[in-house]
């Protein structure tokens, strides 16, 4: 087995004494840094390479922290001025997962780069930390590489905002296929609209 296989085995056993101590040290370090930090190399090289990262020009890694917990409704004084069905303020959950939110925040902050993928690195009581793989679409090393230059196309601008990354596809339910995925494609809203719209011929 190669070295990446051993690294992966270590990361798969997150509740071992070694990894629990490692996470405590990492989380302490991450807490004392800024919200968004560019890192020189990935914390999980095996995971990053599986997600498409290459140690070459045009690739960069950013670490971002996202607050954990539910999503409180953003209304003034906790008053909704509507029906009781919508009166709840707490006990609400965000539809997006924290990883997709992390990707969106990095993509917004570093607008000239494209989000390729991301992976989890640590969690503490208040925050979840992710590392996001970014690609520079204007770099010659990227534009000339046939394995990655698909991301240069303008249709992939801010793909993280539109749920096109792996984390985005997950919260859209698109990881389900076949019998469980019928009402999810092309999207839940489009599927509902097609089933609830009556179409008539113009001349009938």
Summarize the structure.
The chain is α+β, with helices and mostly antiparallel strands and 204 residues long. The protein has seven helices and four strands; from the N terminus they run ααβαβαββααα. The model has no long low-confidence stretch (mean pLDDT 95).
Task: Describe what this molecule looks like in 3D.
Helices cover 30% and strands 16% of the residues. A 4-stranded antiparallel β-sheet has the order 1-2-4-3. It has helices at 3-12, 17-31, 45-50, 98-109, 140-143, 166-171, 188-195, and strands spanning 36-39, 59-67, 114-123, 127-135. It has 7 helices and 4 strands. The radius of gyration is 21 Å and the shape is globular. It has 204 residues and is α+β, with helices and mostly antiparallel strands.
Over all CA atoms, what is the radius of gyration? 21 Å
Describe the strand arrangement of the main beta sheet, using strand numbers: 1-2-4-3
Number of β-strand runs: 4
What is the ordering of alpha helices and beta strands? Answer: HHEHEHEEHHH
Tell me, rounded to a whole number, the average pLDDT.
Answer: 95
Relative helix content: 25-40%
Based on secondary structure, the structural category is: alpha+beta
Query: What percent of residues are in strands?
Result: 15-25%
Number of helices: 7
């Amino acid at each position: 087995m190669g070295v990446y296989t051993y690294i992966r085995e270590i990361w798969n056993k997150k509740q071992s004494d070694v990894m629990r101590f490692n996470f405590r040290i990492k989380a302490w370090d991450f807490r004392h840094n800024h919200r968004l930090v560019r890192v020189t190399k990935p914390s999980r090289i095996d995971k990053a390479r599986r997600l498409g990262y290459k140690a070459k020009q045009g690739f960069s890694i950013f670490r971002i922290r996202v607050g954990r917990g539910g999503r409180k409704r953003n209304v003034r004084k906790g008053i909704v001025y509507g029906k009781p069905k919508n009166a709840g303020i707490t006990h609400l959950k965000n539809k997006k997962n924290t990883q997709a939110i992390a990707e969106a925040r990095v993509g917004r902050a570093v607008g000239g780069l494209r989000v390729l993928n991301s992976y989890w690195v640590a969690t503490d009581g208040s925050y979840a930390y992710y590392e996001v793989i970014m690609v520079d679409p204007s770099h010659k090393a990227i534009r000339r590489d046939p394995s990655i230059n698909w991301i240069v196309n303008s249709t992939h601008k801010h793909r993280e905002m539109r749920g096109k990354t792996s984390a985005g596809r997950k919260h859209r339910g698109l990881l389900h296929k076949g019998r469980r995925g019928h009402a999810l494609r092309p999207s839940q809203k489009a599927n509902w609209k097609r089933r609830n719209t009556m179409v008539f011929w113009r001349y009938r």
